[in-house]
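User: Okay, second chain of the day. Same drill as before: sequence in, structure tokens out.
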Amino acid sequence: MAFELFIGGRYLRAKRREAFASLITVLSLCGVGLGVTALIVVIAVMTGAEAHIKERILGSTPHVIVMPGGMAQGMGEYMEARKEILQVPGVLGAAPFIQSQAMIRSRRGASGALLRGVNPALSNEIFDLKDKVEPPGAWDRLVPDEASNPEGRPGIILGKEMASNLNVIPGDVISIISPSGTLSPVGMMPTMQRLEVVGVFSGGMYEYDSTLAWMDMKQAQKFLRMGDTVSGMEVRVKDIYKADRIASEITGALGPMFWATDWMRMNKNLFEALKMEKRAMFVILILIVLVAAFNISTTLIMMVTEKRKDIAILKAMGATKRSILKIFVLNGMFIGIVGTALGISIGTLLCTILEKYQFIKLDGSVYLFDRLPVKMEMFDVLVISGAALLICLLATLYPAWRASRLDPVEIIRYG
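Assistant: Same drill. Structure tokens below.
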């Protein structure tokens, strides 16, 4: 192999009269580097977006939700069901919850909301909500406290964007209206209750921050006239990627009157769309490397044309077709390897800068995040490098094959 490397290195160091071929070589190298850089940065952003969305979803929603099946209006004896769920292997916590649509109205506006009634003590087993609510201690104020709330008015925690739309802050009073009203002599009347805003929830996702409202479970049962029933159970599992299997085990333990779904199934369309977009961007951007590969082929074809006499002399001295093939394959792969290494270096540097300084801001009302998320994964870098090197290798095969097929006798005879 040392012989082929030596000759290939001599061919890459073009003389002054071969400056045009040398320029094409540099452009090919830069093209491969640019393509790899673009791939690494874009795929890192796509991976970061997927990880960011997954983190936000799991920070505001349970891993598994258990609901009563059939025509049941609610789950009774939910604490017994909780004990059964906690016995399932892989379950870390379970908490009852109430969920219903509602209308929230303030003096300055109104907004639809997804009302969630929770037991604050048990819900902390599912996800840590305390760090996402301001001011501190807001969860403890959901239940009326005579010391801080002499009027005995229940508390409510609103999503950050909803509170902004309603133009309310902690301490303000809002009205909540239930879609299921009560029958009166004049027809159906909506159920209304006044609550005090005790905190603002910031989950980091606009979809949640603009719709979620939290109140104490007991207060939600009274408001919605549910008696001693709940909508279902929230479950936290040890391994989030085994949530589907654990959901099946939970339904098996509770019986056919219950059904369970996991976070992957609830957000399947979103994650499938992200994966499809990631694959599409990979295919589109790999075309940049493909264009650079054509330049590599052009460079080698010109090199073979210029070095016809040298090839003939090498063959006359005993060089085999295999050796000639290796010389030009190594030339092309040198361009591919250096270009790929350059692209990886620049791409890694750009990703590090974007991740550290976060100077690109996004509109949270349009996107699912307010900063450009960046996350590099070694697997993605290896796939991108492998794809770039494979394309460069394929680009060298035809020119190298043509060089190995040259007839030294004809070249020496006719020049």
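Strands lie at 64-68, 91-106, 109-118, 133-134, 155-159, 173-184, 187-201, 212-216, 232-237, 258-262.

User: Thanks, on to the next one.
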